[in-house]
Hints:
By secondary structure, this protein is of the alpha/beta class. The protein contains twelve helices and eleven strands. The chain has a seven-stranded mixed sheet with strand order 5-4-3-6-9-11-10, with helices on both faces. A two-stranded antiparallel sheet has the order 1-2. Strands 7-8 form a two-stranded parallel sheet. α1 packs across α2.
Amino acid sequence: MNRRQAIMKACLLLRRQEKEESLAKFLLMYMFDETSQSFNSKLSEQLSLEVENKYFQLIEKHIEDDMPLSHLVGFEYFYDRKFKVTKDVLSPRMETEELVHKIIEYVKDKNLINIKILDLCTGSGIIGITLKKELEDYNVDVTASDISELALKVAQENAKNNYADIKFIQSDLFDNINNQFDIIVSNPPYISYVDKNTIKKNVLNYDPHLALFADEDGMYFYRKIIEGSNTYLKKNGFLFFEIGYNQREKIEDLGKKNNYMVEVYKDINGHDRMAMFEYK
Length: 280
Ligand code: GLN
């Protein structure tokens, strides 16, 4: 069986179970760890029996358990780099690429050199690592922290594999941080426990709940970070957050209460998704 035939067969299996068919192609491409261009040029290549069996086993696993692609293969791409994913970290999301892009644009626009960036709740490390790599010419000093030791292990491995020189600190928010930063960024847990029953099974069963849910109607981490910024953010510094599609008003209120100007941006799907805070 060649690559094209395997994908077609998998599509059929997925379609029968009303699953998204695009997974068929991505899964095989991820298994070969090839760019889409190189993969597409080899669609008529034969699969070894071993690869074929593994591929259909994973397709079955997806059908039976709703296991997402990142967990089927153990990694995900973020900003064109490869990041290891385990059960201890949130799988990288496209929306978070947009947040990172905003920060990169911001640093480049203002031509900020030698700044210090803190990535709180770093999880797999995608935000801090990507900023360090994409802003190499700006000599940014990146610190990333997480409460979870197991997440930090994954993040450290990701930093090493991507040759990103970052400082990692195990810390419950600012508890073990003792520095001031020009930018503090976070994609913290932000889903309200009340919304738990609206979350899809493939998220609920695979992403760590520690990374998904937050008290105070999802606002706990934003409040703590904003309050902590009095101490840990430089006076002319900025805060960047990923937020939930329904948190615009609440994040704006929180900003106002703490004397910040807040700008909220939409993601590619038109949902409120990013917030930037600046001292008034
Ligand atoms: N910062 C990581 C990410 O953006 C983890 C976020 C989280 O665990 N809530 O994916």
